[in-house]
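Entry 14. Two folds queued back to back today. First construct below, sequence then structure tokens.
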Amino acid sequence: MKSDDAIMALGALAQEDRLAAFRLLMMEGDQGLPSGAIAERLAVAPTRMSFHLATLEKAGLLNARREGRHIHYSVDYLRMRSLLGFLIEDCCGSNPDICCFPISEPIQETH
């Protein structure tokens, strides 16, 4: 992944409704959800959610497919893996294995 692509993807995720929609779709798997269901579950106006979903799609994070009058969105998992790979590519002195940790265990943040 190129830096410009990563910046676009991260920028698309850097908004509360878009991040919530992306996380919801991550849980739904390949089937995804229609835009109206996403808006309803997140209590966001449908037109506003459509705008946010289009932003995520333009950034390459979502796939969209039309089914009749509805547009179903799902996560582009290859693109997401590419973004995560880009972020940890040079981690820990170019040894990303050191950065691996079980996802189910929360990381203790230190500030």
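Second construct, same run, same settings:
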Amino acid sequence: MNTDALRGHMDALLLSVLEQEPLHGYAIIEALQARSGGALNVPTGTVYPALRRLEQAGYLTGEWATVGGRKRRTYRLTSAGHTALAGERSAWREFTGAIGSVLEPRPAR
């Protein structure tokens, strides 16, 4: 899928992936791919700046850990992040409803 099509939705996708458990950056990318059935192949150059932005906004907390001799930053949703995710989901439903009503054929009158 074209990453331009994801513009404006990346925050919601990242928050959603982190809703269930804390993950490090690469695991987040893998989760996006797995949950999308392989349709989302998001580059690290898109994910990491978004994670930093979400952390600065207070929606995520991050902490460094060493796993298998490698340092990794693990991200966790904050309570503000859960609230933001609920807002993103509501906005998504409104958006898809409006677009769907335009794109879906209507019966002729």
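Quick look at the second one. The CA atoms of residues 52 and 60 lie 9 Å apart. The longest helix spans residues 79-103.
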